[in-house]
Amino acid sequence: MAAEAEVPSQLLILKPPPLFSDYEYKFYPKFQLLKAWESPLPTPLFLTTHAHSVKAVLSSGSSPMTSDILRHLPSLQLIVTTSVGLNQIDLPACRRRGISIANAGKVLSEDCADLAVGLFVDVLRKISAGDRFVRSSLWPAQNDFTLGSKEGERLGGKKVGIVGLGSIGLEVAKRLEAFGCIISYNSRRKKANLSYLFYSNVCELAANSDALIICCVLNDETHHMINKEVMKALGKEGVIVNIGRGAIIDEKELVQCLVQGEIGGAGLDVFENEPDVPKELFTLDNVVLSPHLAVFTPESFSDKYDLVVGNLEAFFSNKPLLSPVLDE
Questions:
Q1: Torsional class of 105: left (φ above 0), alpha (ψ -120 to 50), beta (otherwise)
Q2: Looking at residue 50, what is its pLDDT?
Q3: What pTM did the predictor assign?
Q4: Could you give the C-alpha distances from 131 to 75, 127, 134, 138, 146, in angstroms and in order?
Q5: 274 noted as active-site residue
Q6: Catalytic residue at 97?
Q7: Any catalytic annotation for residue 50?
């Protein structure tokens, strides 16, 4: 008698993560995908229908795992998220129920760091502003746009404060060291075996930096951590680059400081109320804007979905997760 075919493990997906359709093949035939967004049923009813069979969920920023969603999934044991940040997940509820979480780990770190450095260089050297100047045919008429001639615009020798020296922050530091920048940082705790100067207070870090690069996660402690006091400490020539989450910065205060010339410039890949961006920023040549695309490379997406599948296979095989999120 032929052996029965193994039934694929169920995987719940509330909404498709970015470019999911391009990488969906990686999940077949290993998992039975429960696509809530394709169901004619309201989400609560769809979840109730599968409440006792779903043990794993694939999550992303577009599908928050709220306490209400978790309440409809009493058998849930694992959330795998395609992001590094966890602000879309109700962590206290997961802790109470013993639900494991796996995130994107380090697979996105290099591409995030590349964009952070790119934004920083762009702001300092006015590359995007210069591009607009040329495309607008202003060069022949005005002939007075200068790239990087302002004192202090050279990248080498800049004192750069990194907020959040995790895997992304470390990659940023490594790249900027190669440019001759002087690195210091703020993090939850001082890192062993690192020569970078550590500041436990982000305001002190700002006061001793020419630029802040935000690489930390968003949580209750970091929400609006970069406030007006920090920006004032950074000073009129200071630059802020944010590749973390928009709400780490008090966006209203940032806009005011930029408009009033209280800081020197900003490179922003994330915003507080995406996709809405403050219109006051659109006309500022010392601001470079990017639509939350730090990890949008083919390499990142391929590596990310390989890691997602690897975590799911490990879970359903009762093996250790590849990129578990551990309480610290």
A1: left
A2: 96
A3: 0.92
A4: 54, 6, 5, 11, 12
A5: yes
A6: no
A7: no
